[in-house]
Amino acid sequence: MAAEKASGRGQAWFCTTGLPSDIVVEVDDMTFHLHKFPLMSKSRKLHELITEQETNPTRNQSNFSAEEEEDYEIEKEQNCHVSLPDFPGGSETLETAAKFCYGVKIELSASNVAPLRCAGEFLEMTEEYSEDNLISRTERYLSQSVLRSVKDSLKTLRSCERLMPLAETLGIPQRCIEAVAERALSADPSLFGWPVNDGRGSSNVLWNGIETGVRRKGTSRTTSSDSWLEDLALLSLPLFKRLILAMRARDLSPDVLESCLMYYAKKYIPGISRSNRKPPSSSVVSENEQRELLETIVTNLPSEKSSRSSTATRFLFGLLRTANILNASEASRAALERKIGSQLEQATLDELLIPSYSYLNETLYDVDCVERILGYFLDGLEAEIEGEVGDGSVRPPVMMLVGKLIDGYLSEIASDANLKPDKFYELAIALPDNARLFDDGLYRAVDVYFKAHPWMAEEEREKICGVMNCQKLTLEACTHAAQNERLPLRAVVQVLFFEQLQLRHAIAGSILAAESAPADSGRPSNLELEQEGESAVAAADSSTWRAAVRENQVLRLDMDSMRLRVHDLERECSTMKKAIEKIDQLGASGGWRGSLTKRFGCKFKTQVCDSHEPTVVETRKTRHHHHHLQKR
User: Among 139, 224, 299, 627, whose Cα sits 20 to 30 Å from the Cα of 293?
Assistant: First the structure.
């Protein structure tokens, strides 16, 4: 049997068995020249149509045009003509069904079993009408082969998209969806394509977007699962929604569910992955379709943290950027921000720099969005701490990570000339005081902000400096701050005071260690009379003692230099105090004292500077305590 193309209008398919055809079947733009007996022996519907035409011929030969005369001459000896509009699967499926009727062995696959099953139902090729008919053959292949494989079930599910509503009536899509969900439930999450690639199909490592030729680790392990996800990504959005809902109903692993959502989103939404912003030409969808897909992805994201949080967090930030561009619903954006906030410790500084797409924001980056994300993080962390039994003052490791991240973010956005002082201040004090071991990162951000905003008033500078705790600055940061001309005088005096305090504590600790060292070093010398082998230990202790003495000498020199600097400041302050007293004697002390107090932020009573004046750090503690009481 062979198929031949006619030279006339359209296309024709001929059965070359040596016998002239006695029936023409039309499907779409294809005409099939077949024989009645094989078709009538397998299909009840064709049998009824052919019998009806033989009984009541209705072919009107007077309506042929001149162009159809040649075709009419070929078909004039034929006495039967059947047209099958809306045939499931089209002409290709009818060709395979016709071969089955002629007894030709057909090869079933995951791609053609659903069209052939629908064709058998359409043509009524039942087991009652003929043994081992098309319906029973396709049903057997579906249950014994297709539904036992996730990949084949997805291929069959995709083929059902052009067979609706007949395929839905037969229950083929639902059976495929349930099969995929059941197989995925019992699968190992580590085999589902982690990390999810960017859809490029390349397994080479990229450097600045260029393939280096070095293959990624674990490429061979994820090849089969990647192909599984590729079949999933070919589904239409309605079928994909149904499949995801079936997976969620079975409490599927969050890793598997997240990998499916990530791969499908990267397939159809450009811009989620910064390394692959242009989708394939075959998957370009409209902006409304992208928005609908994005909201579907966000709605079905699992609430649990992923075990591969770094990959998932990068994907979530990509979704958030795209949601801002597509102007997605407020609920979707809020859900993304809440999801990111739950795993903010896994984020990087590059991901946190979200561009501002609104015309209402003058800043380069969306600071309000980061502030909301940080709020969600603090709320979640507070709930976790309250649920645990223990000391609530303990510094969680995730808090330290987020503190370092926010300090880096503040340093990046501080150079924006449009960033308002109040916005910088609110974000800087959003974290509690125990989120930072040292405030060097905050000092760096403040210094960058002052450099980018030289026109700030003295009161605003002092307010911004209040976000730092001078007691938590390292000696290197204190040395830099003491010489920083951009800082207000009040902040410099506080830094010098606490720098002297740190040196005093360091020297005191060194002296205590040095005083205890001779007693410890004398013990091995007494034991030398008993064991000769301990002489090496005594030598090591003596070397440790010499090193401690050197460090003590260096610290004493540093202390002397610091003492000289403090004495200089005290002399200057005493000189200023005497000048003020003279002015008081002249009767004009009130105005001058008030102006100098505002200028230098100190009160000349019995000390050089008021180091115990309330700072913003204490205010921040009070605010967090008040917020905690309100929640309770």
Answer: 224
